[in-house]
Every structure is written in structure tokens, then in C-alpha cells.
Design goal:
Endonuclease III, domain 1; DNA-binding; 204 residues; 12 helices; 2 domains; elongated; single chain; 59% helix; mainly alpha
DNA sequence: CTCCAGGACAAGC
DNA sequence: GCTTGTCATGGA
């Protein structure tokens, strides 16, 4: 069973996921995608939308404003996103960043780990980095794709076993998240899961 | 009531 | 290198 086939099954079952700039009508500016990527760290996307709405209403969404406003004030505005003190600091650090947009330079910033950095590079700047999250590891371990441990091992596994396509990377990751929410909550084979057969075959 | 979401970091071993 | 504690709101 190869990755592309799994992608196709998920796409057929769930349809396109309309994450960030895949939408036709509304394509948020790159900076807003970066903000969202930080705010959604270990946080439900619904809460992130509440925070983004607050930021827009208060006129605190642009890079410049975030640089200027106090960390405390920013924290208050993004409160619904949770971890608001940490995230306010992260956003200010990111807003002040002015280096090359490489994976390495972004990773050197406090508060940006591999998943957030890859999300920014992929969804905001269209660079072909495959985003790996907790769902990805759990689901593909269960499917018998090996017991990789580190983030980069998983990322390289996907990147070297898929066509190097930005839109494919975007949609596949979104579909994996969708699958993780719908199914794969519990350990055994889940009812109605589009990967039920593959899951059984792996014997986990 | 409990559980946990589109993680990252620091401290301890 | 790996494990655990911390950060926090809002919806199911």
C-alpha cells in the first residue's frame, strides 16, 4: 500500500479540506497564515478563529501592529486561543523576524518548532515541506509504516515517497487531520474508517 | 464532570 | 537520547 493511494482514498471520502490558501474566494495574506500557525499550536481551530476575529476587530492583526503593541495587550486579545502568554511572545518574536525564510532560520526562533515552521513554509509560502503532526505519527504507525520516532524521520519518509507537489502536501496533511478527528481515536479498527482494510492488514 | 485540540520548551534522567 | 511538567481556552 503506497502513500498516494491512501491519499486518494481519503480525498474520495472526505473531499477537499479548504485549509488556508486553497480556498478560491478568500485567500488570507501570508502573515495571517503565520499567525494562525502559531495560534493553533495544540489548540482547536475554532478557538483560533475566535482569536483571529478579536485581532481584526481590535486592529491588531498586521505585523507592524503586533511589533508595536505590548505583549500583555496582545495576550489579552488572543485569549480564546489558549496559552495566550506564550503565544503572545511567540507572535512578537515572529513579527520582528527579518531573515531569510529558510527552515533553519525559522526553527532558530523561540516558539517555532518543526510542525509550525513546516506549516508556515508550506501553507504560507508554498514550499514543499510535508507537515507531520501527532495524528500522522499515530495513524501511519498503526498502518504499519514503521516505528519512526523523530519528526524529521517522518517528514522525510513522506517527502521521499510522494510526488513533490505543494498542493498534494497541503491537502494530504489536512486530510490526515480530518481522519484523525473522525476516526482513529481508539486503538482497534474503527467503524466506517476509509482505511479500515489497511488498518486490519497491519495487524495492530 | 472529563477530555483534548492543526505544539513547543525546559528540566530531569 | 527519552520522559514528564507546564502552558489555558472553549467545545463536545
Amino acid at each position: 500500500m503506497n502513500l498516494l493511494k491512501i491519499y486518494q482514498k481519503l480525498l474520495k471520502r472526505f473531499g477537499t479540506q479548504n485549509w488556508w490558501p486553497m480556498q478560491r474566494d478568500f485567500s488570507p495574506p501570508e502573515w495571517e497564515i503565520c499567525v494562525g500557525a502559531v495560534l493553533t499550536q495544540n489548540t482547536n481551530w475554532g478557538n483560533v478563529e475566535l482569536a483571529l476575529k478579536n485581532m481584526k476587530e481590535k486592529g491588531l492583526i498586521s505585523r507592524d501592529c503586533i511589533k508595536k503593541v505590548s505583549e500583555k495587550k496582545l495576550a489579552e486579545v488572543i485569549r480564546p486561543a489558549g496559552y495566550y502568554n506564550q503565544k503572545a511572545k511567540k507572535l512578537k518574536i515572529l513579527a520582528s523576524f527579518s531573515g531569510n525564510l529558510t527552515r533553519e532560520s525559522l526553527l532558530s526562533l523561540w516558539g517555532l518548532g518543526p510542525e509550525t515552521v513546516d506549516s508556515i513554509l508550506l501553507y504560507a509560502y508554498g514550499k514543499p515541506y510535508f507537515v507531520v503532526d501527532a495524528y500522522t505519527k499515530r495513524i501511519f504507525t498503526r498502518l504499519g509504516f514503521g516505528n519512526r520516532k523523530s519528526y524529521d524521520e517522518w517528514r522525510k519518509f513522506f517527502e521521499s515517497n510522494l510526488p513533490r507537489s505543494v498542493s498534494l502536501y497541503k491537502e494530504f496533511h489536512a486530510l490526515i487531520v480530518k481522519l484523525g478527528k473522525e476516526n482513529c481515536r481508539k486503538k482497534p479498527v474503527c467503524r466506517g474508517c476509509p482505511l479500515r482494510r489497511e488498518c486490519k492488514k497491519s495487524g495492530i
